[in-house]
Amino acid sequence: MYKNLFPVIVSVVFLFLIILSCKKEIDTEYNYFLIPIDSVAVPDTVKTSKPFEITFFGLVGTNGCYSFSEFVVQKLDNEITIEAWGKNKKEAQICPQVMVYLRGKKMNYSLSEPGEYLIKVKQNENSYLQFSLVVKE
To answer: For residue 23, is pLDDT > 50?
Structure first.
């Protein structure tokens, strides 16, 4: 009788030890900020519905706790506003001593309607880099 219970008891103890040994993943909290863009490479002319690349350059942060987060795009009629967002670890105590750059970070985009578009890359609340883009069929 005890012979049949031994594997069950060992299995339960083993399962219990596995559950106790698992650590919950620590969620890192970040501060988010608008990355000031130094320069942008945008094509002059593209075709409708064909994806094209917009390439960004700029300083993200002064140490390895900074990183690129995402591009936020808003389109209103023929005006496209792009924001490059970065993040910084809130409570980081040790950060690698390295400058973090966008280094040609690419964003793919496409437009389905032909026409002339104004691309505005937001620098801060009142400043934008602006480019014209022609979309042809």
So the answer is: no
